[in-house]
Amino acid sequence: MTFEMAFVLIIIIVMFVALLIEVARPDMIIFAALVLFVLTGLLTPEEAFKGFSNQGMLTIALLFIVAGAVQKHGILEHMMTSWLNKSSQKKGSMIRFYLPVSVSSAFLNNTPIVVAFTPMIKKWCQERGIAPSKYLIPLSYVTILGGTLTLMGTSTNLVVHGMLIDYGLEGFTLFQLAIVGIPVLILGFIYLFTIGYKILPNNKGFSEQVKKDTREYMAEMFVTSEFPFLSKSVQEAGLRDLKGLYLIEIIRENERISPVKSTTIVSAGDRLIFTGLISTIAELQQIKGLRLETGTHLDLDDLKNGEVQLVEAVVSHQSSLLSKSFKQSQFRSRYDAGVLAVHRNNERIKSKIGDIVPKPGDVLLLLAGSDFINTYNNSNDFYVVSTLDTPNNLNENKGKGWLSLVVLIAMILTVTFGLLSMFKAMLLAVFIFIITKIITPEEAKKNIQFHVLLLIASAFGVGTAMTKTGLASWMAKVILGIGEPLGIIALLVAIYLLTNIFTELITNSAAAVLMLPIGIEMASSLGVDYMGFAVTIAIAASASFITPIGYQTNLIVYGPGGYTFSDYMKVGTPLSILVMLVTVTIVNMVWF
Fold it and tell me: Which of 193, 283, 518, 535 has its CA 20 to 30 A from that of 579?
């Protein structure tokens, strides 16, 4: 091993550790490693940033726009809601829902699908007295499995495809991965609705737990004429920075003031709604003019009106809220929303709301303005997974909704029959969406997840460093030295496991970018078809079932389903092993 190879290996190990302990956002960590390679002269600027012009990465950017345009008008959601409402409470009927969801995920971005359908599943379960936890992990898993059916099914497939083209090799065709994807999807369905269903926990959703235990986290104080701070601001009255308590709303006759600002004036007759550590309410009772409403029948539904709504949002890995408390991030004024409660690891965090430092996967129950969902639905800070009264997202202009579906189907057909490449077909689709005003340029820009693109493009540079210094070749020889005597099956298993472990620990696209150079080198050394290794790596990088952090969709359902980390391990490990066995068997039969 040369000094350059050792240096790259050390940087990659440090990068992995930084990703594991979450010292910063994943895209910034990998970008920092890339910058280090440029500064030390290991990579030229052209080599380092070539990934930013990679066809696979650019196709992913277009895919974000296409998915956003198709889902903007709510046609798919409306169709799925109607379809779902016809289902009975028998779990077998849910297959009628998950099958079209998995097919949709083969052509659209998985994340918005899970975000859109999580509240549908929850509502369906609540109406039938079924625990949502029985269906939300399967929702995430079937979208992952559906993504293995086509080239455009996941960003991972497009990344591997783009890298193969960069190597001067032939990439995937649109349905080439379906050779493995279809058997994997079928067996995955069988597992999830038999053994997996029995293993899944029987939890109530976060909002249901909160509704049941409203008095444990909410209290109401009545302002009498004896209150010494009448006509003073909330700040002057000392109600802004209370120990353990958070003033979430003021009810004044027919007026609702939420979120409460520090300048809001307190008047006699006001009903002050507090959340947080209700056990500390005694401190407020000692203030003259404040009376605890012990007989109150306060309920979550009492907080809702035309101007205010209750919203559940899941904190994302890319959130700017991480590492700062809600008070430090000025959440209330920044988002015009108040945090009612925070849910982590199937438990409500019992501390003062303002002092809580959010983590990825935390579920926030928010009291927000009526335009909150439209404003922050595509926010990088969190995934808005529901309102407790899920609105009908069907846009009045159904024509544009149906036209977007027609364009999507036409795009798929042009690629299927070889009339256009995936990149050109998506480029044309986006152009049609914009000129027909199905989506505006501003909306298109908003739908692009730039942090994902930065991560992928930076990972391309890290992969280039591995190849240029010979580290990829060296690692391939090490794996070959151990696995070659055991046969090609053992090598495929080794590549699959390494890729899958990287996916669970970091991200799917980064895992694929780091492992593909090794797979290509192994295929070259063995003198076999590189496509077998490429397919194995693509499937393994997508098949993230064991942790909630390896794949975005797992994180989205983590809180709403009331899951613990171990739930993913118990349900996901057998599925992960099943997918690996099927993948390795089929790849060996077809390509070797």
Answer: 518
Q: What is the rounded CA–CA span in Å between residue 518 and residue 483?
A: 14
Rounded to whole angstroms, how far apart are CA atoms 512 and 155? 10
- DSSP letter assigned to residue 149: S
Nearest to 277 by CA among 219, 363, 213, 345: 219
C-alpha distances in Å from residue 40, one per residue of 35, 255, 377:
9, 62, 41
How far apart are the C-alpha atoms of 497 and 482, rounded to whole Å?
14
How confident is residue 519, by pLDDT bands cut at 50, 70 and 90?
very high
311: enclosing H helix or E strand: strand 308-315
Q: How far is CA 446 from CA 119, 170, 379, 380, 439, in A?
A: 23, 32, 9, 10, 11
The answer to whether residue 56 is domain-embedded is no
Q: What percent of the chain has pLDDT over 70?
A: 91
**pLDDT the model gives residue 297:** 55
The closest alpha carbon to 408, from 424, 394, 429, 428, belongs to 429
Q: Are 586 and 180 in contact (CB under 8 A)?
A: yes
In a domain, 442, yes or no: no
Q: What confidence tens digit (pLDDT) does each residue in 168-184 have?
A: 899 999 999 999 999 99
Closest CA to 309 of 247, 242, 258: 258
**Sign of the CA dihedral with 314 first, then 80, 425, and 583 last:** positive
326-371: per-residue pLDDT in tens?
Answer: 889 988 878 888 888 888 877 778 777 888 999 888 888 887 877 7
Q: Match 């009106």 to its residue by tokens.
A: 305
Assign residue 336 the CATH number of its domain: 3.30.70.1450
**Does 515 reside within a domain?**
no
User: Strand, coil or helix: what is 305?
Assistant: coil
For the chain, give the mean pLDDT: 85
Q: Is residue 356 part of a domain?
A: yes
Nearest alpha-carbon partner for 113 in 150, 85, 154, 83: 154
Kindly report the three-state secondary structure assignment for every residue of 271-284: EEEEEECHHHCHHH
Q: Which domain holds residue 377?
A: 225-288+305-387
How many structural domains comprise the chain? 1
Token pair, residue 2, equals 């040369």
> What is the model's pLDDT at position 298?
58
Tell me what the mean pLDDT of segment 428-440 comes to: 94
The token pair at 466 is: 């591995």
